[in-house]
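Page 42, continued from yesterday. The earlier attempt failed because a stray header line got pasted into the input along with the sequence. Redoing it now with the clean sequence only.
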Amino acid sequence: MKIALPLAIMSERTIDILIATNNPGKAREIAAVLSEETDAERHIRWHTLADLDQPIDEPVEDRDTFAGNSQLKATYYSKHSGMITLADDSGLEVDALNGAPGVHSAYYAKLSGKPSRAERDAANNKKMIAALQGVPDEQRGARFRCILTLANGDDVLAQSSGAIEGRIIDEPRGAGGFGYDPHFLVPELNKTTAELDPAHKNRISHRGNALRALRQELQNLLARLR
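This time it went through. Structure tokens are written below.
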């Protein structure tokens, strides 16, 4: 559904919140988790960047932490859309690579031109595995980390974090997920995050953990703004 700008609070009982993504699947997952055990489903209208009548140029993500980039995106899109905005910044930290690719996870391979998401993912994984050659399994600890920020203009309303610990394996496994998922093994499950069904992945993922941590703050926000 298309919406006109600016649009913040529709009524006493309905709040519009922009999820700073063009991916409708990701937005659905975020909205579903945030609506669990809250009345968000009845009192929030969720939107994505794809819903906007007027496209918003992407900001330059030049902060050196996930928290910094998450806050930058949330305040940027909130000011440009006129809506309360939820933004995340996430990535992979590999211990043997001193925390890389970290905040550069999405563009780790630094491809030129305009590669597709699949091409970028393949290049990123290839670079990571090459950098880990000769590193023994017990030194391949890694984690996916996510920071979520909810903002209204320049005001940060809430921020939460989540992580999932794992280990990097050389050979990709699984056809699900995206990014580094085929190489990220969850040892207690003996499965990569690309081998998990979406519901299971959401229950244990870095983003899912961050979203669950944000739920109470969202409930408090609803109580204040209604």
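Notes: Strands lie at 15-19, 44-48, 84-94, 141-152, 155-168, 184-186, 191-192.
Reminder to self: strip header lines before submitting.
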